[in-house]
Amino acid sequence: MEIDSGTTAWMLVSTALVLLMTPGLAFFYGGMTRAKSVLNMMMMSWVSIIVVTIAWVLYGHSLAFDPAGDGEGFVNQIVGGLDNLGLSGLVDTATKDDGTGMPNLVFSAFQMTFAIITVALISGAIADRAKFGAWVVFGLVWATLVYFPVAHWVWGGGWLSGLGIMDFAGGTVVHINAGAAALAVALVLGKRVGWRKDPMRPHNLTLVLLGAGLLWFGWFGFNAGSELAVDGVTGLAFMNTQIATAVAAGAWILVEKLRDGHSTTLGVASGAVAGLVAITPACGFVEPWGAFIIGAIAGAACSYAVGLKYKLGYDDSLDVVGVHLVGGVIGAVALGFIATRPALEGQQEGILTGGPIGQLGVQALGPVAVGVYSFVISWILAKVIDKTMGFRISQEDEVTGVDITTHAETGYDLGTIHSSGVASPNGPAAVPTPAGKKVDA
């Protein structure tokens, strides 16, 4: 089949949009941490780009999307084959055999960006206290043992795909997967020093809002691009993404107003991300009214779910579990009730829109299976790393700040300002007086 230039151009743009989401996540997470950890938090996202790109090129694409042998049998239900190690066979003008007219290499690049941000999402649960080198090892091995097989289960012809699960853009593959892993790693590393005693508020809400905006922008490529074409479903996914996100953001700050007496910028940003997460599996399978319902439920439910860590006693630093795990489950299971546009063989409408109850069972089975698998493998992996190279920084380094102890840098120059305008690393910040003297600011 000849290359479709329109589809290919759209998919290249979508790929770039999804890649932009990881630096956007770095801003979002970085602003939510304390000032002494902002650079480390952002580095954890940036290094995910490096590590997962290398793994994807060497073997990740093959494990996720290559059929094993003849494409039949138990092995291919669990993981892909090894025919395209190093992307061999993709570096040409060949197009996917699905009729999209898109080069195989473009499809691979698009899927690679999903793997990157999934790994980066996990880092938010262990802010302030993880060894950087241990995080690099965890991200590489987790992508290999968890993300690549799970992507195969759902999108690469694996067992969940065979059951007819609906996951348009990654509610199960990305968000439930990352959320379950985040919970496991947070439990292994334990609570931050001073958790629930010391203030651990976001240090820069401006960065949080910037990051949320970049995530919202990039998510149009994430969701609408997952149609792998330019057609009516692309437009539907695009519009549903906007609807659910806006409604969820509004629902979150409404809950805040009714519960706490005020609406916050952190709330509106978190609500937007919750809506983006929840609509991800459903954006191409529901009508706009369905996106409205999903957004409203996700915004309200996730605003309460982020407080579970205080009741259950786990320190999920940046609410990965409350937003991504809970939001992903809401979107995935909602399809069992209100799906109206099943697109692939084996998929059905939701039970409220005329479909069989079996589809609801599949939509519930997927999150449970992926969540349990991701949690168990992540917990074991984190434990092994902790017992060998150590996963958590020392208490002294944590109190001092992981930025300075790990990276020998600080996110902000808070040195003394002289009348000459030159900053000094010593002493508190100061401003010049009219007489040329300085006073403490």
Explain how this protein is built.
Helices cover 63% and strands 2% of the residues. By secondary structure, the chain is mainly α. Mean pLDDT is 91; it is low at 416-441. The chain has 16 helices and 4 strands. A hairpin with a 5-residue loop joins β3 and β4 (438-440). 53% of the residues are buried. It has helices spanning 5-32, 38-65, 74-78, 104-122, 132-155, 159-163, 171-189, 205-224, 232-260, 265-279, 288-305, 308-312, 320-338, 357-388, 395-400, 402-407; strands spanning 416-417, 423-424, 430-432, 438-440. The chain has 2 domains: 5-396, Ammonium transporter AmtB like domains (Ammonium transporter fold, Orthogonal Bundle), CATH 1.10.3430.10; 413-441, no CATH class. It has a two-stranded antiparallel sheet. The protein has a two-stranded antiparallel sheet with strand order 3-4. The chain crosses the membrane at residues 12-31, 38-59, 105-127, 134-156, 168-190, 202-222, 234-254, 266-283, 289-308, 320-340, 360-382. Its main location: membrane. Homotrimer. It comes from Thermocatellispora tengchongensis. One of its GO terms (cellular component) is plasma membrane.
